[in-house]
Amino acid sequence: MKMQHYNRIKSYFQRKGKQLIKPVAISLAICLFLWKLHCLLFKLENVICISITGRLANAMFQEAFVFTFAKNKGKPMVVFSSENPLTDIFTLEGLNWKYDSTHLCRCYPKYFDRWDCAFDDQYEKLQLSSKDTVQVFGYFQSWKYLKGYEREIKKLFTFQPSIRQRADKQLRGIIKSFQDKGVTKKTVLVGVHIRRGDYVTEKTFVNFGYNVATETYIHNAVKYFQDRYPDVLFIVCGNDLPWAREVMQKYERTYFVEGNSPSQDMALLTGTHHTLMTVGTFGWWIGWLTNGTTVYYKHTYREGTDFMMEFNGGITDHFPPHWVGLD
Predict the structure, then answer these.
(1) pTM
(2) Rounded to an integer, what is the distance from CA 250 to the centroid of its chain?
(3) Which of 25, 131, 188, 279 has CB 3.0 to 4.6 Å from 229, enough for a Cys bridge?
(4) Which residue in 233, 143, 234, 140 sits closest to 194, CA to CA?
(5) In 3-state terms, what secondary structure has residue 319?
(6) What is the pLDDT of residues 266-284, one digit of tens each?
(7) If 0-12 CB within 10 Å is exposed, 13-18 middle and 19+ buried, where does residue 313 land?
(8) In this structure, are residues 186 and 178 in contact, taking their beta carbons and an 8 Å threshold?
(9) Could you count the other beta carbons within 10 Å of the beta carbon of residue 277?
């Protein structure tokens, strides 16, 4: 009986499927025609389109790239994602942008970056007229895209007053809590960001080739700062604080931050003097915005993996040349 029931259901859907092929094809043809008509009737001239996607740090790379690219091409930018996730975090001062509520951006040519973590010169070479509109897609995770616009991008990524004020208050509280250990306003503050989490637990990331920093690296990086600044305090944020505590608990002047949102962590650590990052774009932006000495784990990918290919042969396009890479 079960087999007969199954065969009847299968036969029904086979008949219905054949009957639906023609009307579905007609519907798709009509939709395509209407979309082409939409693109012909309405124009979006002389803009750069981008969809801001991903979490905080990835969105920052996209925002920074399209800002510099649009500036270089003399065009305003249009965001055609449903919203810009950075507006509640940063002031975005100097950003000439608007939303594409009519989805016209999708009518224009698309340019994808060839490597997520390296510089792609196709954008530099791209010749556009005063009327041309294009879409750009990618992660654009290279310091070279920001070159020449550092001051403007720092203004762009000025934290909203409420976030900055809370971070400053938190920083003052941390310094005060270490007064009995000799910490003062003159103490050198090093912001530490530990990135592990899904890089360790998710097979997708592991198989793709993501690395995480080792315990040895943390000790080498701590020593790097201690050798240069005898009066130093480490302030630690990240997504694996139990591991961070286990590794860094022997350093008396270390404060572990809990309970913050990602934007609050970033605001806090950019209020320090220098940066000890491990891997990942979140730590990258902390180092870039802090603008002190940034130490990073130089084995950010595993050799021979797909993730390695995103760096186009090395890490020099991804990490600024004055940053310090350690084992």
Answers:
(1) 0.90
(2) 32
(3) 188
(4) 234
(5) coil
(6) 999 999 999 999 999 999 9
(7) exposed
(8) no
(9) 29
